[in-house]
Each structure stands twice: as structure tokens, then as C-alpha cells.
Amino acid sequence: MKKYLVEFIGTFFLVFTVGLAVRQGAALAPLAIGSVLMVMIFAGGHISGGHFNPAVTLAAFLRGRCERRDVVPYWIAQFLAGLVAALLVNVVLQGRVDPSVIAQHPRLASFIVEFLFTFALCWVVLNVATSKNTMGNSFYGLAIGFTVLVGAITVGGISGGAFNPAVGLGVFTMGLESFAQFGVYLVSEFAGAAVAALAYRLINGLD
Prior knowledge:
Layout: H1 2-23, H2 29-48, H3 54-63, H4 68-92, H5 107-129, H6 140-159, H7 165-174, H8 179-204
């Protein structure tokens, strides 16, 4: 239960930060989002692995660094945290976003960039946090947080820059994205995670 609680806490603060920063139009929203992910990974990585992302959990499982019995409980904790965080953002900011102003993202472009940056995120996680060659390093949280920061700045205007199905559920619940876009997030991000795990195993094996 400790692992699942840590996954809930980390994912909650990630999605809560995304919601408040984006909905208020904060100029430094990508920096805030990358930073909160970094500090939550440093805070909880030694307990749960610091996934805070269902796609990362899938990649870690396929890579051989997450037990099968933990996959579904991790997903439940992460998606529940995203939902609770989004509902609290709606309370704090007095309701969901007006449906008439939901962002309209090009589907194919969204799929491509979400796939690529989720691949990049999972690739970084697997290499800096699960590889024997980098085991025990002190930079893994920084590397992972900066990957999200880079992605948010680079393609946030194209797809919304989720790279995380729990974030996708959160922004949909807040009214920031459509249900169709949430579907794009789910498919592209889980696909990116699976390909990242495959690439890791092809290059490094199970080390």
C-alpha cells in the first residue's frame, strides 16, 4: 500500500499543478510542471519508483522493472489521483472550463508528438532510473523532469503536451481537452511507452 499511496500523491500534485498553472495562463507553466514532477520523483522514487504516469508504469513493466501484480494497482492510483486533482482544480477555480473554448488540436499531429515525447520520457526513465549502469545516481529526477519541460515547451501548442494518460484524464475532467483528445492521449502515450521499452531491451537487454 505504501507504493500505491506514493504513486497517488506524486500523480496528484503533478496533475494539480498542470491544472492550476494552465487554467490560470501561467507564463512559466512548463517549468512548474517539469519541476513538480522532478521533486515528487526525488521524494517518492525510492519507495514506488516514482512513475506518476500509467505509460511509465507500462514501460517499466515491459522492461522488467515493475512486477505484474503492481501494474493495475499503480494505474488505479495514478488515474484516481488525476481525477481527484482535476476535481479539486475545478473547485478552486469555480467550475470546469467553458466547453466552447476547449482547445482544438490536429489529431494526427497530436498523435505523433504525444507518441514521440512519451517515448522520450519513458526512454529517459528507463535509462536513468532502471539501468545498472546508472543505478544510484543523483540526477534521475532532474533528467525526467526536464524531459517533460522540454516536451511541454516544444509541442504543448500542438497537442496540449500531456505525455501521461493520468494528466490526459485530468485535463479532460477540467474541461481543457475534448473526449476525443483524451482518446488520442491514451493510444499514443501507451504506444510510445511500449516502443520505448522495446527499444531499451533491444539495446540493453534486461541487464
